[in-house]
Amino acid sequence: MIAKQCDVAIIGSGPAGLATAIALKKLGVNDIVVLERADEAGGNPRHCGHSPFGMREFKRVYLGPAYARKIVSEAKKYSVNIALNTTVVSLGEGGLLKLSTPKGISQLQAKRVVLSSGIREMPRAPRFVSGQRPAGIMTAGALQSIVYLSAKKPFKSPVIVGTELVSFSAIATCRHAGIKPVAMLEEEKRSTAYSALNLLPRVLGIKQLFNTQIIDIEGKQQVSGINVINNTGEKSHIKCDGVIFTGKFTPEASLARSANIEIDPNTQGPVIDQFGRCSDSAYFATGNVLRPVETGGWCWAEGTQTARFVSESLAGNLPNTEKQLQLQIKNKNIKYIIPQRISLFSASQEKIIGLHHFQLRVTEPVSNGKLSLSHNHAELYSKNIKTLPERRVLIPLPDFTEVGASSDVVVDCT
Prior knowledge:
By secondary structure, the protein is of the alpha/beta class. The protein folds into 3 domains: 1-121 and 249-318, FAD/NAD(P)-binding domain; 125-245, FAD/NAD(P)-binding domain, CATH 3.50.50; 323-414, no CATH class. The chain is built from 8 helices and 26 strands. The strands form 6 sheets. Strands 1, 2, 3, 4, 5, 6 and 18 form a 7-stranded mixed β-sheet that branches. A 5-stranded parallel β-sheet has the order 9-16-10-11-12. Strands 21-19-26-23-24 form a 5-stranded mixed β-sheet, with no helix packed on it. Helix 1 packs parallel to helix 3 (64-77) and helix 1 crosses helix 8 (296-314). It is globular and about 70 Å long. It starts with a strand and ends with a strand.
């Protein structure tokens, strides 16, 4: 049952959302509801039938479905109210939510709302892959759902597009269903995921093609093959009966975007301050809705932190958002940085510790770079870095003061 009012509404029941709910309960915030549009809680791990999940938060290894059951069980242990089959239609100013439930349309006024709606993979259309539209074209997430939740085998010999962690997860899903991928395509010259994972396709006889992208898809009823091109302009044909588009994740932030909550063009997720607050201070964001993409364990830890910030906000202990420092990215090789704002305390306020680090990623490999953070032309932090795209880079979050509050904080990588 959903009341008309609550202290905190949490949108999404994945690791970040349930961690937030559990931590809030532990902090004494009891009037909570988790809103989940699916008919089962647990988020994406429900249909990731592989390990490892749970090492960070439970100190043991789970397969995805078992991990999902574990986090739901933890939530129930703390009497967290999870409303299933409940879709948030719109976000209103100040935490007013419009819901679509099995009983019809309703409204919920929450004092605070936590966005933890996760991410989605980029399907075929936004990748501008032409050709026919036969059966057998899907994302890795759709494949996992078909295999693990519906026990179906959509093809026998597909091609996997991408080399992110989820791409190798797609290999594991294929093996579970008795499917044998014929090739793995990557536009760049190296794998996006850790290079050690390249042993898996080699052992399984899956051909890896780097500097190669898909041109079009052939087939009438079912995929019959694809045409590809490499970086030298050489074209070739691969016979297959399916195409799995993996990765290139985007935060599921459509609700925030339609509510005029500020969106970062770099992350495609909500802009937040060091407490996870959005541009409407009734809203917080946590987990993969902030940026693509982090592990379930990282999202769990982030949700736990967010609960503390929400609790402090309900108590009126956070600074207002009138005085903020903005993070300015100076070098185009920095893909994004979060948080994007720093809210400043007044002299009379007791300071609350927010997130411990800025998190950023780069767009191109950095072999001998200097990462720096500066404010008012004074260097606050620097270190030499060696990193690749899609690797987490952390910068300790300094203790900012109101001095120079009108100027930006600049992050650079040279």
